[in-house]
Amino acid sequence: MTERRLLLATTNPGKIREMRALFKGLPWRIVGLGEVLPGLTFPERGRTFLENARAKSLFYSRNWAGLTLAEDSGLEVEALDGAPGVISARFARPRPGDESNNRKVLRLLAGVPEKRRKARYVCVIVLSERGRVIKAVRGEVRGRIAVEPRGTGGFGYDPLFYYSPLRKTFAELSAEAKNRVSHRGRAVRMMRGFLEKKGQGPGR
After folding, report:
1. pLDDT in tens, 59-69
2. How far is CA 42 from CA 38, 93, 98, 203, in A?
């Protein structure tokens, strides 16, 4: 039987790892851009997570024979007027990275009391095939920004994102526990349900 593959339009190893775990059990293998379309890049210029995810999904689906999933996600901090938002991965320019992005958030929130450190993680996933959008879903989870990084798991802003129901940051949770409550986990479950209901295959 020919292996069926579904393209996840990212080169972020953390996202690929989480998506593979979240889609486990479905009859295809998640592949990243570096594996099947190395060197092909799409500049993100959207003003919202949906605009970015939709544009990426359509772009890469025109270069891939099967189904293409594109995801855009990030952190929105209430006291920062929704920043870093769609530039979450590039927040600490010119030298962005998980540690520098986290340091910038903490610096901007220095002295801000706990009740004003509300934040949310947002994830939008768009499924396309051959230049046509099939489905878009959105997941989010609310929390607050801790006063210092805690935990060594996850990636991105996880060491700062404190989830009150579990009394831990996302970086202190196991991968399984995080996936049950995270923005990405919630969005993927909606997408899984759509694919299972419609009986979609992962492409050729």
Report:
1. 999 999 889 99
2. 12, 19, 21, 21
